Amino acid sequence: MDLIKVAENAFAVESNLPKFGAGDTITVHYKIKEGSKERIQDFRGVVIQVKGTGVTKTFTVRKMSGNVGVERIFPASSPFIDGVEINKKGSVRRKRIFYLRGLTGKKARIKEKRV
């Protein structure tokens, strides 16, 4: 197991992502390649979970697109992430807020953390 960790640390890429957790509203600036063109698309939503450590760290962001909930899993060490912007800090009691999937309307709102 130590050999695996040594290999992971050797190939680790430093990610300059800000600290965020479940309940925070963030905007992920993601690079998309279409043929020979490259553009940056913004994905703004609530962080449902942050999972893993080091190279395997991922975070799931959920947004409402019209009446449909859209979730996307981003690897934290992905070279396609151009940047992450924190819009709101959310006050939640759990690390994984999957209960948000079943809520609609005003019940799906998350209280903002007072700083």
From TrEMBL:
Keywords: Ribonucleoprotein, Ribosomal protein. GO terms for biological process: translation. SUPFAM superfamilies: Translation proteins SH3-like domain (SSF50104). GO terms for cellular component: cytosolic large ribosomal subunit. PROSITE patterns: RIBOSOMAL_L19 (PS01015). One of its GO terms (molecular function) is structural constituent of ribosome. This protein is located at the 30S-50S ribosomal subunit interface and may play a role in the structure and function of the aminoacyl-tRNA binding site. PANTHER family: LARGE RIBOSOMAL SUBUNIT PROTEIN BL19M, RIBOSOMAL PROTEIN L19. Belongs to the bacterial ribosomal protein bL19 family. This is Large ribosomal subunit protein bL19. The lineage of its organism: Bacteria, Pseudomonadati, Bacteroidota, Bacteroidia, Marinilabiliales.
